[in-house]
Amino acid sequence: MTHHSRRFVAAIAVLCLAGCMTTHEPDATQVPTVPPPVVLGGSDSSGLGVVGSENALYTYRFRQIEPSGEFSFRDRDMSFYFRPTPTALFFRIENLQGRPVWIDWDQSKFVDVHGRLGKVAHSTTRWRERFGQQAQTQIPGTTQYSDYVFAMEDLVDPGSVEGAEEVQPHRPILPEDQSAPNFQGRTFGVDLEFLVEDRPRTYRFRYEVASVIPKTR
Asked: Over 174-190, what HEC string results?
């Protein structure tokens, strides 16, 4: 079996696992609940693809509310571009100065659409690392770095399926099913902690769900 085939099989297994996590017998007096959807990793944050999954019932429109701007921010040291999606918050950073800066993931925070503030997961974070330390990311001088973030709590246990952890199963930031309209007006975002000239600096970004529109087929 090829490497790509193994990843595909692992992905299917993870999706099946997500729907079978409840092992107790259901109470006949309760309405059964549908397991939350699971997505795998994230796409290239520098791409220009459609925001949202192919089978989504609704399309989200976002606006950046802090700092105000068109999904971007710039100071004398760094330039940021963000692309919020239901799956994850994608971004691209350019280090404008001639010396390296570091992203301190352990000190960074993610606030989800329910107002919960917690640890940040990004493209290389895995389930086994959720309680440990994450290595800092260096951005050399005058270079760009692209990644995505979501709440660490949204990582899903891949179980014992070989290779499943490497496709990074996690819950999306926002649902794209019939419940999507309930999230209009909700906010989410990230506090990215940097080391700039060996000093900590926090960059705070917040996004609002401006509208939720039924997706046309």
From this structure: CCCCCCHHHHCCCEEEE
